[in-house]
Amino acid sequence: QLVESGGGSVPPGGSLRLSCLGSGPTSIRNYEMAWFRQAPGKEREFVATFRRNGGRTYYADSVKGRFTIFRDNAKNTVDLQMNSLQPEDTAVYYCAAGVPILSAIATESAYRTWGQGTRVTVSS
Q1: Sheet holding 2-5, edge to edge
Q2: Is pLDDT at 63 greater than 80 in this prediction?
Q3: Could you tell me where the beta strands, DSSP code E, fall in 32-117?
Q4: Fewest CB atoms within 10 Å of the CB: 13, 24, 35, 72?
Q5: What CA–CA distance (Å, rounded) separates 90 from 40?
Q6: Do 13 and 123 form a contact (C-beta atoms < 8 A)?
Q7: How do beta strands 16-22 and 32-38 pair?
Q8: Beta strands 111-114; 91-98: pairing state
Q9: Which secondary-structure segment (H or E) carries 22?
Q10: What pLDDT, on a 0 to 100 scale, did the predictor assign at position 24?
Q11: In this predicted model, what pLDDT tens digit does every residue of 74-105 receive, in sequence order?
């Protein structure tokens, strides 16, 4: 089970930090962890991932340089620090766990466990 927190409403240029906590049988050390988001009227899209082996991180082009993903296996958490937020970042953000190969890190179906989502609204 994954539980997200930290969403809210901020003005353009603001920052938020989302957190995802693994619980029950979901020990994040066993999985590739990622954040996805779904904007109103759009399909869910990949945001970022933190690979379990080697610690490599990958980001969607739209968030590179603004978002940073953190992983703490000891705390069983994966955080997403979001800076310089823009209205187009408005979405429900989801944490996901799975075992995708590198070529599938942005593929929604490659992740088998999802959180309930946390809403982020960027508006003046």
Answers
A1: 2-5, 16-22, 77-82, 67-72
A2: yes
A3: 32-38, 45-50, 57-59, 67-72, 77-82, 91-98, 111-114
A4: 24
A5: 8
A6: no
A7: unpaired
A8: antiparallel
A9: strand 16-22
A10: 76
A11: 999 999 999 999 999 999 999 999 998 888 89
**Which pLDDT band, with edges at 50, 70 and 90, does 21 fall under?**
very high
C-alpha distances out from residue 95 to 12, 71, 123, Å: 23, 12, 23
- In this prediction, residue 43 carries a pLDDT of 96
Radius of gyration in angstroms for the set of CA atoms belonging to the chain, rounded to a whole number: 13
State CA 115 to chain mean position distance: 10
Q: Tell me what percent of the chain is helix, strand and coil, each rounded to the nearest 5.
A: 10, 50, 45
Q: Are strands 16-22 and 45-50 parallel, antiparallel or unpaired?
A: unpaired
Phi-psi label, residue 41: left if phi above 0, alpha if psi -120 to 50, beta otherwise: left
Question: Residue 88: its pLDDT value, please?
Answer: 97
Q: Is pLDDT of 116 > 90?
A: yes
69: which residues sit within 8 A by CB, 6+ positions away?
33, 35, 48, 49, 50, 57, 59, 78, 79, 80, 81
